[in-house]
Amino acid sequence: MLCDLGSSNGTYVDGRRVTETTVASGAPISVEFGPGGPRIRLFVGDEAAINALPPAPVELPQRRWLPWAIGATCLLAVALLVWRC
Q1: Any idea what the Cα angle at residue 26 is, between residues 22 and 29, rounded to 5°?
Q2: In b/e form, how buried is each residue of 16-55, taking b as 16+ CB within 10 angstroms?
């Protein structure tokens, strides 16, 4: 059993917010602590079952700052061109 004991950001299992859920033996689940927070992969089983698991999918972090950096660079370039003229 996995229980959220009243955390402020919530607990998410496979993308759904839960307060309590059963963890089935032999089925890996993804547990996230708050939206966008730390994430773990939880598995209940014996060592042979753990060794037979496929690797967890790798997710690349989103670069939310990139559009802002490009926009700021363009704005700075235009400002410098206007200032030189």
Answers
A1: 55
A2: eeeeebeeeeeebeebbeeeeeeeeeeeeeeeeeeeeeee
Q: Write out the chain's pLDDT in tens, 85 residues.
A: 999 999 999 999 999 999 999 998 888 899 999 988 899 989 888 888 888 888 877 777 777 788 888 899 999 999 999 988 7
Give the Cα separation of 62 and 64 in Å (integer). Answer: 6
Q: What is the CA radius of gyration of the chain?
A: 22
Locate 14 and state its tokens. Answer: 């496979």
